[in-house]
Amino acid sequence: METPAATADAPEGLDAALDACDGIEGPLLPILHRVQAAYGHIPDAAVPAIAARLNLGRAEVHGVISFYHDFRTTPPGRHVMKLCRSEACQALGADALAAHAEARLGVAMGETRGDGAVTLEPVYCLGLCACGPAAMVDGQPVGRSMPPGSTR
Ligand code: FES
Fold first, then answer.
1. Which of 126, 137, 142, 144 to mutate to test the pocket of ligand 1 (most atoms within 8 A of CB)?
2. 3-state secondary structure (DSSP) of residue 68
3. pLDDT digits (tens, 9 = 90+) for 2-54
């Protein structure tokens, strides 16, 4: 079958992510999560293919990607540190922690360091409010008196 023009530049393997969500109700978010899991971000070149598959406008797909903080449009650093910026953590020193992380890591909040080593991102409540200020480092929750790798 010939590839439609809207999907000719789609990243390799994208069809598998799209096929995996065939037939499910409300497939856009599951597709975006699958694409981000596969590529680390949602490549611009994937948007036309996603839109075409779901019979949506590209702007609609872009709108959903930009609405949710968790979706990335650029590749993340090799390590990703998410710092909670919500009220409970702010009351427990999250602002000072964020300033310290920015200075120590040499990267501004919401950015990836130039050498690609680390991405520092804000997040809005990790469900660890009692252990605030809370963070997530490479997918592992970290809180005050809660070492990385802890499961509580
Ligand atoms: S407010 Fe920070 S983890 Fe809930």
1. 126
2. coil
3. 334 445 567 777 888 788 888 889 999 999 999 999 899 999 999 999 999 99
pLDDT tens digits, one per residue of 40-53: 999 999 999 999 99
**Dihedral sign from CA coordinates of 42, 46, 47, 51:** negative
Distance from the alpha carbon of residue 135 to the mean position of ligand 1, in angstroms: 9
Pocket of ligand 1 (CB under 6 A): 84, 86, 88-89, 125-129, 132, 134
With contact defined as beta carbons under 8 Å apart, do 15 and 50 qualify? Answer: no
Query: Positive or negative, the Cα torsion across 52, 56, 59, 61?
Result: negative
Give the nearest ligand 1 atom to 143 CA. Answer: 3
This prediction's pTM? 0.76
Strands (E), 5-139: 79-84, 111-112, 118-123, 135-137
